Amino acid sequence: MEKLIITAAISGAEVTKEHNPAVPYTIEECVREASLAYQAGASIIHLHVRKDDGTPTQDKNRFKEVMDAIRVKCPDAIIQPSTGGAVGMTNDERLQPTELSPEMATLDCGTLNFGGDEIFENTENTIKYFGARMIEKNIKPELEVFDKSMIDMALRLHQKGFIKSPMHFDFVMGVNGGISGTLRDFVFLRHSIPVDATYTVAGVGRFEFPLAVAAIIDGGHVRVGLEDNLYIAKGVLAKSNGELVEKVVRLAKELGREIATPAEAREILGLKKQ
């Protein structure tokens, strides 16, 4: 079985310090959280950036500042910027971090009702536009899917040449408006992707660690972090992203799965350090 790639989603665009004081906003806080996750065993840092007051931004200059600072502390980590941005941003606004030519970036494969009046919009033309940009820039997309239909969209657009293989999926499970975080639905998604594809599971909230165990056993990969889950245990706030990664490492060791280094993660995903 391949070694386990751990991704740390250190901040997201929705959670705030009011939810958990460890959520990073400033460059220094992002470096702290990325470094703690990296030292604990994360190979990939999934990155959203904020202004110092916590406002989400896709400004490429802010991304560059944060990414450069993270690389000082985590020189071989895979930094994976989000092109999801925040609800209401334009396509070109969301795509700004791709101008920095990262090794990987996320590509969301469908529209989702986040709750209330918030709609995370990703039309077919948006997905084509993002996919073509990533091919042009030689960026490997992590195909974020919140439901089975989004896998079908990714496969269809792969056939049309907008997404290259081998594909790498991220099953984001347990989000309001998306697929649930049950083992039944994990198995459903797992067996809906091509045999040469790889996948990561991002369980949201209380689903984070049960789905991590399922992925560890199955041979998949795991995403954890304050973007997805604020708690280390029921009712106990996580002290850092590093603490969440440490828990996955312990679970993997108990289940006999070794942790991938960044170099090994690149080999598994077919990446070349840029």
Which range does the strand content fall in? Answer: 15-25%
Helix coverage percent of residues? 25-40%
* Count of alpha and pi helical runs: 9
Catalogue the unreliable spans: none
The CATH class assignment is: Alpha Beta
Mean pLDDT: 96
What summary fits the major beta sheet? 8 strands, parallel
- Proper CATH architecture: Alpha-Beta Barrel
What oligomerization state is this entry in? single chain
Rounded to an integer in angstroms, the radius of gyration calculated over CA atoms is 17 Å
Class by alpha and beta content: alpha/beta
Shape: globular
Q: CATH H-level name... which superfamily?
A: Aldolase class I
Tally the structural domains: 1
Widest β-sheet, arrangement of strands: 5-2-1-12-11-10-9-6
- CATH topology name: TIM Barrel
Q: Total number of β-strand segments?
A: 14
Order of helix and strand elements from N to C terminus: EHEEEHEHEEEHEHEHEHEEEHH
Which helices and strands, and how do they pair?
Layout: E1 6-9, H1 27-40, E2 44-47, E3 49-50, E4 56-57, H2 60-73, E5 78-81, H3 91-94, E6 104-108, E7 112-115, E8 118-120, H4 124-136, E9 140-145, H5 148-159, E10 168-173, H6 183-190, E11 198-203, H7 208-218, E12 221-224, E13 231-233, E14 236-237, H8 241-254, H9 262-269
Parallel strand pairs: 1-2, 1-12, 2-5, 6-9, 9-10, 10-11, 11-12
Antiparallel strand pairs: 3-4, 7-8, 13-14
